Amino acid sequence: MALMTPEQFEDSLKKLKPRIFMNGSKVENILENRNTRTVVEANKASYAWALDPKYKEIMSCYSPLIDEAVNRYTHVSASTEDLVKKAEAGTFTAENLGTCIYRCVGYDAFHSLASTTWEMDRDLGTKYHPRFMEYLKMVQKKDLSVAGALTEPRGSRNKKTLDWPDPYLSLKLVDKNKHGIVIRGAKINISGAYASHELVVLPQAAHFQGEEDYAVAFATPSDAQGITYVCQYTPYSAERDMADDLQELGNPVFGQRETSMVIFDNVFVPWERVFHCGEYAYSVKLVTRFAKTHRMTCGGTCKVGFMNQIIGAAKLIQEYKGLEKAAHINEELMEMVVLRETGRACGVAAAHKGAEEPEGSGVFLPDEMMGNVAKLNICNAFWRAMALAGDIGGGLTVTMPSLKELKNPEVKDYVEEFYSFGSDEPTENIMKVHKLLQNWTAGLHGVGTWHGAGPVMAQKIMLQRVIDYEHEKNLVKKTLRLKDKKSEK
Ligand SMILES: Cc1cc2nc3c(=O)[nH]c(=O)nc-3n(C[C@H](O)[C@H](O)[C@H](O)COP(=O)(O)OP(=O)(O)OC[C@H]3O[C@@H](n4cnc5c(N)ncnc54)[C@H](O)[C@@H]3O)c2cc1C
């Protein structure tokens, strides 16, 4: 059976020894540290759902590669139906976790690797595709969690990679021998990597002649020698560290979207795990195929799930306050639903309009236009949903005291009385829902949603490449029966 139980997943993490630092100290145990634990919990849920008869349709699927059921997050889409299921899984996990499912970036990187290794082999006679498929089989059989790493520190953006004084601001090959390659550099903002078994690493950008040493893609165990994680630390991390009871927090079990800088200090990667090495013209394909897959996910699926959390909290607060008949609140809620459904529609359209790429590869990728439109829309829609929810939530969303006051004999009764809205709802519930909304509207999610899978300009650049306006121009020419250009007569 290729599916691990959640308990087996947790046990498997105990065998790993990643080198992790957070807030100036070493994290000795990711299962015990309160912030890293949230990543463990989120991934753990993906193992539970894949085995749960209620959710296994969404979270697992049949893999012809190993002729067994596998976790969906290890499967490369082989049809538009697979892509639609992928979209559904993105929404399902996000709305149930209220944060990332940290297997998502690796899942999207698998799509890019399967497609591009196939193309490299076809065009260049390399042997990357069977090598990658063997790796994927291993991932599926062992049901591994795999994080994906592309984003790099980079040097001055107005200089070319080769002109940066520090050549390692983009991940670089430093040695190559008959056993494998050695890599130095870092990846930044990487979601959930330390609680994954494996990292799949792709280039962040297109590479050009002379940049062969930057054109690398590979997989490595997350605790390989030379890898160090320096974790994000935010006011939300501190709050979790300091809480008496995690139930005081806005997302008690799954927390924030946790990332880290992943440092590769002369990390050795054996050849059987190298999927791109020097073929610079294909780096851009790896990046753009990843981007279109990930933008469908980030734009049209997981933010739909996040918005459900925001809408749910706003609706509950409307009811606690007795504002069910307030026309403008109902309009605001409706606007949130429309924003959410627009996001969902773009995601589902990207999946339905997906196609095999390249033809003959057997790999299906979402539609470029709709995937990018999904993310572009959601960048703006999410801020708007946050603003609307903030209006409904009122000042309490950011002014509320700690839930600890409900246990403080000196003020407990006042807090119970004055934050009750005179309703029948336990004050504790009212405070918790406001805390959840604080988490969404006054926390990390606005910027996180904007930048995750690339900021707006990145989508606009991709859209400029696929929009040509010929169809539209021809329509007008036909409608008006415009004459040919003088030179064409
Ligand atoms: C919550 C979260 C989770 C993430 N998870 C992952 C992950 O798991 N794996 C992963 O690989 N990445 C991950 N990322 C990284 C994400 O993809 C990047 O943050 C995003 O691509 C933006 O890059 P950046 O943060 O370096 O910002 P920048 O690139 O510095 O962008 C800042 C601004 O500068 C502009 N800009 C940048 N370069 C240029 C240029 N050359 N010319 C003109 N303008 C420019 C941008 O358009 C933007 O307006 C995550 C990010 C977040 C926020």
Annotate the secondary structure layout.
Elements: H1 6-14, E1 19-22, E2 25-27, H2 34-51, H3 56-59, E3 60-63, E4 68-71, H4 80-97, H5 104-124, H6 128-142, E5 146-149, E6 172-176, E7 180-191, E8 198-201, E9 216-221, E10 227-231, H7 235-242, E11 259-270, E12 274-277, H8 283-320, H9 327-352, E13 355-356, E14 364-365, H10 368-393, H11 396-399, H12 412-418, H13 427-441, H14 445-451, H15 456-466, H16 470-479
Parallel strand pairs: 1-10, 5-8
Antiparallel strand pairs: 1-2, 3-4, 6-7, 7-11, 8-9, 9-12, 10-11, 13-14
Helix pairs in contact: 1-2, 4-8, 4-9, 5-6, 5-8, 8-9, 8-10, 8-13, 9-10, 10-13, 10-14, 10-15
Bound molecules: flavin-adenine dinucleotide.
Question: What is the structure about, briefly put?
Answer:
The chain is an alpha+beta fold.
Q: Give the overall shape, derived from the CA principal axes.
A: globular
- What is the spatial order of strands in the main beta sheet? 2-1-10-11-7-6
Mean pLDDT across the residues is: 97
The helix/strand order is HEEHHEEHHHEEEEEEHEEHHEEHHHHHHH
Distance between the termini: 70 Å
Secondary-structure-derived class: alpha+beta
Radius of gyration: 24 Å
- In the CATH hierarchy, what is the superfamily of the largest domain? Butyryl-CoA Dehydrogenase, subunit A, domain 2
Report the biggest beta sheet as strand number plus sense, adding barrel if it closes: 6 strands, mixed
Count the DSSP helices: 16
Helix-residue proportion: 40-55%
